[in-house]
Amino acid sequence: MAVSAKLKGCFCGVASAICYGTNPFGALGLQAEGITAGSMLFYRFAIATVIIAIFLICQRESFAVTRKELLILTVLGVLFGVSSLGLFLSFNYMEAGVASTILFVYPVMVAVIMAVVFRERISISTFVAIILSLGGIGLLYQGNGEANLSLVGMLFVLQGSLTYAIYFVVTNKAPLNLPPMKVTFYVLIFSTITVSLYSLMAEDSKIQWLETPEMWGYALSLSLVSTIISLVLLTIAIKEIGSTPTAIMGALEPLTAVLIGVLLFGENFTWRLVGGIILILGAVMLIILGNAFSSKSKADNPS
Asked: Pick from 24, 76, 240, 267: most CB atoms within 10 A?
């Protein structure tokens, strides 16, 4: 049973990263229509919240949570909202490819937090997987040699990376025994509130109205696949295999985005991309095999 639970967690981690990596479908479409980052995130979270609420009502699932659970869910929602804002705002100061590459230091941050705060031992396979994934992400990025690495942009994306890492750790360690769909519902509520407050305070980020069916279609795709499905699977993965392995599997996010660009938008497929793909897939396989092996060892040698 332990092995099957670990494999389930690995599958959810992989699927979550792939779903999150489809962000370009909706985000680039809305960006082309002149929609700002604040508005984009507001619709992404708000529509997702409504969809999950309808699902929970149809399932006759109770919305009740305890005060302690509500506090934890509030923290998770704020962390996720602030992390998303940090990444999207960094696009105003540097290339999106550079920002997305820098964001991927979050698995290292997760590993450090777990090791320092919770005394979690970093295995050799996990360490190697982190190195492989970081190297793979570096190869995936193809800049034009004129990337603007501004201090403000760096601060935004590093803030986004740190808060995302803390989100992983809190999800892993918090005493939440709620269905993943209910957790996602409350996380998205507080993410929506966080983004709304930002839009009210920021002069250049007022929430814009989506005027065409195409805009609503982009927002719906952004909400359904890269938000709802991704977050639900992410919650399951973190609970089953832990925050560090799940974070490393996040390397499949930019890989998915790159493959979308190559397969659907005709971007060049180079040997550099091949190398990045091989390194990332190698990192993911190390995590999957490491979890399966450790689970089997525990089953063969029960304490």
From this structure: 76
